[in-house]
Specification:
Chain lengths: 533, 382
């Protein structure tokens, strides 16, 4: 049987790696595009302040990108290391977008990022601008292919189980690419990255204005950030709604959990603003609801029903019973590959095989499961409701907050009122951590909400793990947590130092205003000369 | 899938070659940066010299490392069972490699940001670890693949690994690790000697010559060991290259020195070890003769020869199993589906030339000797 402690620790490790990686990725995506916009302005207007801005934000981008690379390689390796049965079971479908990401996007980004930093004096203005745009393009394409891969885990289209190879195989690659869940996720996630970049630039620029340093650069950066931020905040909310809408097609359970709707509501369903869990942590004992809204948001109609958790558990139970048949039929095919009758039956029932595998938690011979075990496996299809309910509301609330925030600043920027109100500037700085709260909540909802599935309806998470030992996980988990914590502290420290030092570079400004810290080439001093052995 | 214009067997062979191309690509391109990292504390003595080395590889190392990331991605996409078994089986070794790979990007980026002797020395050692550890461990891994890994598959293709971390450190595997480290240090030295001047270049020549000679000796010793002391694997049942994957459907036999069998079946394969020797000898002579570009080309040729030797000796095996040889993974029974291999081939045929073109362009833009003076001109130098 599968060691559930190892599964749990593997899940913790993957969650930690993925969420840590996703601290850096959205900022990289957002900053790369905004830097490209600023540099375009420089090339068009020829004004040095824009070049200086590109270099300054670029320095912060570089530190962040390094962390993104350091965590990204761990992400790629973790599939095989900790989720080896997953890698075998769906690698035929999942591996391709990951490899294409490398070929099409990451190679582009990683190759040109060197030229972005080192090519200033070797390329023409336009040449360097092209390089910057290519880095931004690479970052965005990267997100596209990763989200195609992830979208397939949420909505596994274009693939079929092959009983001879014991795995899912691609039948329609175009369906995998144009998977509507993947596309909705891509635009939503990329807009969130843009929003993150905009808030980052805006907040630090606000700080500069409060300190009355680098005023010209800060004001210009704020204008770009406010307009870019408003556009991204609007699209992140609109496209987020889109991703909620498509999810109802495929992940009704996730939506039901997010809405804490235990029982099917008659159409049109209300939307629950807040709710308090009942005494056993189950169905809410108190809630405030907006009539009709739920139906409108999730089904785009006033007549369609939104199934509740209890009803979905019932449906899962039916599918588990079908899954037992699929499992038994698969065994027959494995024993006798020439059994044509079994193959014909398997053709009909294979989509429920994954539901049958849910029983593996309780017994090896899935076909002999008792009614009680079937009931328990069906209950397992319910993700934890309340963490999802609240994180969703935090994410959504922040989305609307950012629309209001940037609308206000967009208005103020157009009036030239950027420096006139100090409390507002403080607010502009204080929002700095909020995009990460929203972004990490978003991933939590997407991934935690799909449990117990690693691939929705196809492969249960616990069944996907590698056969590792407890101590393997303890060693690797403590190793990652320690190293990542140290690096995170160092990175924050360096970012603070870079921000304190402010924009400066030897090429364009002869005198540096901070002698303690020099981004540019270091002069050789006696202290640095005698280094090491 | 009769609509796919290439048959399954051919596609499997093509992907085996492409996997080799990616891994050799990493050993040659990434090997430059790993080698420079391994030489960092020794070839460069002052902060100035170390900065020269970091900025020598700084503009291109990130792109070079993608060869490895793509190699991993290609194993996942083209040979998923291999990805599943090797990455989980070598779990703790992978963790050690990851440590090294985490230290590199931050090492490059963070080192120059603070002007403190201890800070910089600490990152110099981090970058040294980041250069030596992957070079060594990836070689140890190849050695273990030649020895066979202790794993088996059940009939649902779930992998069970019965070894532990210390079992990976067998003498032959360590020898492979040293061959790998040696060839990568030679490569790093060729890069340094080719693009710097003065004492830095001189020290790189000394270390590179030593590493090159040592690698030649160890590579020869490795060949002897494979002939006399290592069991080779061979498929003894009929092979159907067009069948659905099923690693359990074959019979496998072990014979001492069996890894050399391919060289008598396909005599042209002897070219690989010959290139390994010729390339490394050329690199050593090039270093001694103070040639620049030819030295690097010879060293790269040597890497190509050595890595190909391992791959060709193993053919058609990808990962033999030492405990249950029938569970061994070969390119015929551990690949992706026909359709996936074909789609991935189309994508690769489209993007690989583009990647090669822009990589060449970036190297051209960044060409030339790196010195302290050239650093002063760049606002973003490390």
């Amino acid at each position: 049987m599968i060691d559930m402690t190892v599964v749990e620790l593997s899940r913790w490790q993957f969650a930690a790696t993925a969420m840590y990686h996703f601290i850096f990725v959205p900022l990289t995506i957002g900053l790369s595009v905004m830097m490209a916009i600023m540099e375009s302005t420089y090339v068009m207007t020829g004004r040095e302040v824009w070049r200086k801005a590109t270099l300054f934000w670029g320095t912060l981008f570089g530190v962040n990108f390094a962390m993104g690379v350091a965590t990204g390689i761990v992400m790629e390796f973790q599939f095989g290391m900790n989720w080896s049965y997953y890698s075998h079971y769906v690698g035929d479908v999942f591996g391709a977008p990951l490899a294409i990401e490398g070929l099409m996007a990451f190679f582009l980004e990683a190759t040109f990022i060197g030229l972005f930093f080192f090519g200033w004096d070797r390329l023409s203005k336009v040449g360097h601008l092209v390089v910057t745009w290519l880095v931004a393009l690479g970052a965005n394409f990267s997100a596209l292919w990763i989200l195609i891969a992830n979208g397939w885990m949420q909505n596994p289209v274009g693939a079929k189980f092959n009983p001879d190879t014991m795995r899912m195989e691609v039948t329609d690659f175009v369906a995998v690419i144009f998977n509507q869940v993947a596309q909705a996720k891509f635009v939503h996630t990329v807009s969130a990255g843009y929003l993150c970049g905009a808030v980052f630039i805006f907040a630090i620029s606000s700080l500069f204005l409060l300190q009355q340093r680098h005023v010209e650069l800060a004001k210009r950066s704020m204008v770009v950030a406010a307009s870019f931020g408003l556009a991204s905040a609007l699209s992140v909310v609109v496209l987020g709604d889109e991703s909620g809408y498509v999810a109802t097609e495929h992940q009704k359970m996730k939506i039901a959990a997010i809405e804490a709707s235990y029982h099917t509501e008659p159409a049109p369903a209300p939307w629950t603003v807040i709710a308090i869990p009942g005494p056993d942590g189950g169905a809410p004992s108190f809630s405030i609801q907006v009539p009709w809204m739920g139906g409108l948001i999730t089904t785009r109609s006033l007549t369609q029903e939104l199934p509740g958790i209890e009803e979905l558990v019932g449906r899962a139970e039916d599918r588990i019973r079908e899954g037992m048949v699929a499992y038994d039929t698969l065994q027959e095919i494995r024993t006798n590959p020439d059994n044509a009758a079994a193959r014909a039956r398997f053709e009909e029932v294979w989509p429920d095989l994954g539901y049958g595998l849910l029983l593996k938690k309780y017994r090896d011979d899935v076909g002999n499961a008792t009614d009680e075990e079937i009931r328990m496996a069906a209950e397992d299809t319910v993700p934890d409701v309340w963490p999802l309910f609240w994180t969703f509301r935090i994410m959504m609330g922040l989305g609307f907050f950012f629309i209001a925030f940037f609308a206000l600043w967009f208005y103020r920027a157009s009036r030239g009122w950027l420096t006139t109100n100090r409390p507002l500037l403080w607010l502009g700085f204080a929002v700095l951590p909020l995009p990460w709260v929203a972004i990490e909540s978003g991933w939590f909802i997407a991934e935690f909400g799909r449990q117990p599935w690693v691939v929705e309806g196809v492969l249960p998470t616990f069944y996907a793990a590698s056969g590792l030992h407890f101590w393997d996980l303890v060693i690797s988990l403590s190793f990652f947590v320690t190293l990542y914590s140290i690096l995170f502290v160092i990175m924050i420290m360096l970012m603070v130092k870079i921000i304190k030092a402010g924009p400066q570079d030897k090429l364009f400004a002869a005198e540096a205003d901070d002698q303690d810290f020099v981004i540019a080439a270091l002069p050789v001093t006696p202290a640095t000369k005698e280094l090491g052995s | 899938m009769s609509t796919i214009p290439l048959d399954y067997e051919t596609l499997r062979l093509i992907w085996w070659v492409l996997l080799g191309v990616l891994l050799i690509g990493f050993a040659i391109m990434g090997g430059r940066d790993l080698g420079v990292g391994a030489l960092l504390p020794f070839a460069a003595r002052t902060d100035e010299e170390r900065r020269v080395l970091l900025n020598l590889v700084g503009p291109t190392w990130e792109g070079n490392q993608v060869w490895l990331i793509l190699g991993g991605g290609a194993i996942f996409a083209a040979f998923p069972p291999l990805y599943a078994v090797s990455f989980s089986g070598f779990y703790l070794a992978m963790i050690v490699i990851l440590l090294a790979f985490i230290l590199r990007p931050v090492g490059f980026k963070f080192r120059g940001k603070i002007k403190d002797v201890r800070w910089r020395a600490a990152w110099d050692w981090a970058l040294f670890i980041g250069g030596v550890v992957p070079s060594l461990i990836l070689g140890v891994a190849v050695g273990n693949v030649l020895l066979g890994a202790p794993f088996h598959l059940d009939d649902t293709m779930r992998a069970f690994y019965t070894g532990n971390f210390f079992m990976l450190l067998m003498p032959f595997a360590l020898l492979s690790g040293l061959v790998s480290l040696g060839m990568i240090v030679t490569q790093g030295a060729a890069v340094i000697a080719g693009r710097t001047t003065g004492p830095l270049a001189e020290r790189a020549r000394t270390y590179g010559t030593l590493a090159g000679i040592l690698t030649i000796a160890l590579f020869a010793l490795g060949g002897l060991w494979v002939a006399l002391g290592v069991d080779g694997y061979a498929i003894t049942s009929a092979v159907d290259g067009n069948a659905a994957i099923n690693p359990l459907a074959k019979a496998v036999a072990l014979t001492r020195g069996g890894w050399l069998a391919n060289y008598s079946h396909y005599p042209w394969m002897v070219a690989a070890p010959v290139l390994g020797f010729v390339g490394l000898i050329g690199a050593v002579l090039g270093l001694l003769a103070r040639l620049r570009l030819p030295t690097l080309l010879a060293s790269s040729l040597g890497i190509f020869g050595i890595v190909s030797t391992a791959g060709l000796s193993l053919f058609p095996f990808l990962l033999p199993s030492s405990t249950v040889p029938e569970s061994s993974l070969t390119l015929w029974d551990a690949s992706s589906s026909h359709l996936t291999l074909f789609i991935m081939l189309l994508v690769t045929c489209f993007f690989l030339p583009i990647i090669l073109a822009y990589t060449a362009w970036v190297f051209r833009v960044m060409r030339g000797t790196v010195s302290t003076q050239s650093l002063e001109k760049n606002p973003n130098a490390y």
